[in-house]
């Protein structure tokens, strides 16, 4: 079932069009990554979905409801984690969770929420003494309190150390496994690739790519890279290559096959391909290709790449 539907959404701030007609859907139990550079319009989109801003145009539905008109009903079924947490610095972690539980419908027990967010050992600590990463985790604990059907996570792992980040990924996967639809914004492309089943990339208020993560990446060229052997010019290689930081890079739909071709060629000349790296396309490849103007050539905003 569709949990979030965005159809032709537009939204301006004081005459500036932050979101210019975007459409996407997130299914129940799906992790969806909304990506894009600073100012692309991600937070504006999430705020509209959370009912905090009124859309100028288009239609937005969360669990089949209108986020503004049905805000009260949706509040019980959605969890939100924004970039700027508004905590009381003098409350302890436990007191903060308890205060939040007071106005959450059917909240999880405090201990369970803290456990999920990896804060069990910090219950007695005052919020102002938490590290930046721990504050992010407290935010996550509060977003999870009401066992939401839809969860909005705006840069949930910014400032987290690698261990805490991996723990957050486990929590997100666990919730999706239980059927929660999760809309995540992040600047960490590896994180999005690992976590999300679908994604959309925004740029200046429009979607420049969207679709299933695996399908989108499988359709893109992967890469084979190696240290260009001494006295070999790129033009001599059996496949087209560019040179990046002293390494020859071949883009290929089937990188395994391309690597075989290159290794056979090298063996025939008694050469070694040092530092050989063979890998399928990553989200970072796609993102950087788009940043370098690929969508300007494609010209079809919102198409599936
Ligand atoms: N309340 C506001 N008033 C005026 N302009 C705003 C407001 N909120 C956002 N904007 C502008 O709208 C554009 C989109 O902002 P938004 O916060 O949605 O981007 P973002 O993709 O979330 O960026 P980031 O990754 O930096 O958080 C930006 O140019 C921003 O300056």
Automatic annotation (TrEMBL):
Record membrane topology: Peripheral membrane protein
Domain of life: Bacteria
Compartment(s): Cell membrane
Keywords: Antibiotic resistance, ATP-binding, Nucleotide-binding, Transport
PANTHER family: ABC TRANSPORTER ATP-BINDING PROTEIN
Signal peptide start-end: none
GO MF annotation terms: ATP binding
The protein's name in its UniProt record: ABC transporter ATP-binding protein
All residue ranges annotated as the ABC transporter domain in the record: 4-229
Pfam families to which the protein is assigned, alphabetical: ABC_tran (PF00005)
Organism: Actinomadura luzonensis
């Amino acid at each position: 079932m569709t949990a979030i539907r965005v159809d032709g959404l537009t939204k301006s701030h004081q005459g500036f069009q932050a979101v210019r007609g975007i459409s996407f859907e997130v299914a129940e139990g799906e992790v969806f990554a909304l990506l894009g550079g600073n100012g692309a319009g991600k937070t504006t989109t999430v705020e509209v979905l959370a009912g905090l801003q009124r859309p100028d145009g288009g239609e937005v539905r969360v669990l089949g409801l209108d986020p503004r008109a049905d805000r009260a009903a949706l509040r019980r079924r959605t969890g939100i984690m924004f970039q700027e947490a508004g905590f009381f610095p003098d409350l302890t972690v436990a007191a903060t969770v308890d205060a939040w539980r007071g106005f959450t419908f059917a909240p999880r027990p405090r201990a369970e929420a803290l456990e999920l967010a990896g804060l069990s050992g910090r219950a007695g600590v005052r919020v102002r003494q938490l590290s930046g990463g721990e504050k992010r985790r407290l935010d996550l604990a509060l977003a999870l309190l009401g066992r939401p059907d839809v969860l909005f996570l705006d840069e949930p792992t910014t400032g987290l150390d690698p261990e805490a980040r991996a723990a957050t990924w486990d929590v997100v996967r666990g919730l999706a496994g239980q059927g929660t639809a999760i809309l995540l914004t992040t600047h960490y492309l590896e994180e999005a690739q690992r976590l999300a089943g679908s994604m959309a990339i925004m740029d200046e208020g429009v979607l420049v790519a969207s679709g299933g993560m695996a399908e989108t990446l499988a359709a893109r060229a992967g890469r084979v890279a190696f240290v260009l052997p001494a006295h070999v010019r790129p033009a001599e290689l059996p496949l087209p290559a560019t040179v990046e930081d002293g390494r020859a890079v071949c883009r290929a739909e089937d990188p395994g096959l391309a690597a075989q071709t290159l290794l056979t060629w090298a063996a025939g000349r008694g050469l070694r391909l040092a530092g050989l790296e063979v890998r399928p396309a990553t989200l970072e490849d796609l993102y950087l290709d788009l940043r370098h103007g690929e969508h300007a050539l494609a010209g079809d905003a919102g198409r599936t790449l």
